[in-house]
Design goal:
The protein is mainly alpha-helical and 211 residues long. It is built from ten helices and two strands, in the order H-E-E-H-H-H-H-H-H-H-H-H. It is 61% helix and 4% strand. A two-stranded antiparallel sheet has the order 1-2. Strand 1 and strand 2 form a beta hairpin. The longest helix is centred in the C-terminal third of the chain and has 31 residues. The radius of gyration is 25 Å and the shape is elongated. The two termini are 33 Å apart.
């Protein structure tokens, strides 16, 4: 931000004194004003304001979900998964988080679901990493909507793709990514991190937050 603001102060030509944006130079006996590297007229004309508003709306929606209690309510609904096997739970949680992250930022989604999944895993005797890794990776599966993530909004702002185009393509990507991530979790995750063994540090629920 400091670099961007400094462009409004730096002259486009070598200044004669330290604050040279307002100096004049003599060109063919005419005095002209030396413009700065960036001026508000250019910003107001070329700035993708629709992208800024779109992203701001996404952040506002994420905060509304948190303040209204919707995120907490969604987290409590995971309790119905306690009768499923851990593998099925991880798959369903990945799908729910991938859908939720389409309308909220990745950071907000992870901050909402990870603490709930940590407590849920401990109560069910499942390694917290098994469910939390599945959810954390799924937070990045934001492919379907422009509001999901800034790169989506930037691509949408050029007008070459429609929302429906993004939904169709993003849905396929979501399905593939969910399946691949869960496959890796149940293979590489078991071999490298031993995510199916309940760890000693998870016996005390207070240690989950500390970790």
């Amino acid at each position: 931000m400091i670099v961007a603001l400094s462009l409004f102060l730096m002259p486009s030509k070598p200044p004669q004194f330290i604050f040279g944006c307002g100096r004049t130079v003599k060109v063919d006996k005419d005095h002209i004003r030396v413009p700065c590297l960036l001026e508000w007229e250019i910003v107001s004309r070329k700035m993708a304001w629709n992208v800024v508003i779109l992203l701001g709306g996404g952040f506002a929606l994420a905060e509304a979900c948190k303040e209204s209690g919707l995120s907490e309510w969604l987290g409590q609904q995971f309790l119905i998964l306690k009768d499923f096997s851990p593998e099925v739970m991880a798959l369903l949680i990945s799908a729910v988080v991938a859908i939720f992250t389409e309308i909220t930022s990745n950071t907000s989604t992870s901050s909402i679901f990870l603490p709930i999944l940590a407590a849920l895993s401990t109560s069910l005797g499942v390694n917290p990493l098994f469910l939390m890794i599945a959810a954390a990776i799924a937070c990045s599966f934001a492919f379907m909507l422009p509001v999901a993530t800034p790169p989506n909004a930037i691509a949408f702002a050029y007008g070459h793709v429609t929302v429906w185009d993004m939904v169709k393509t993003g849905f396929i990507l979501n399905i593939v990514c969910i399946l691949v991530s869960n496959l890796c979790l149940n293979t590489l995750g078991v071999w490298i991190y031993d995510v199916k063994t309940y760890p000693d540090w998870a016996i005390d629920p207070a240690n989950i937050t500390a970790t």
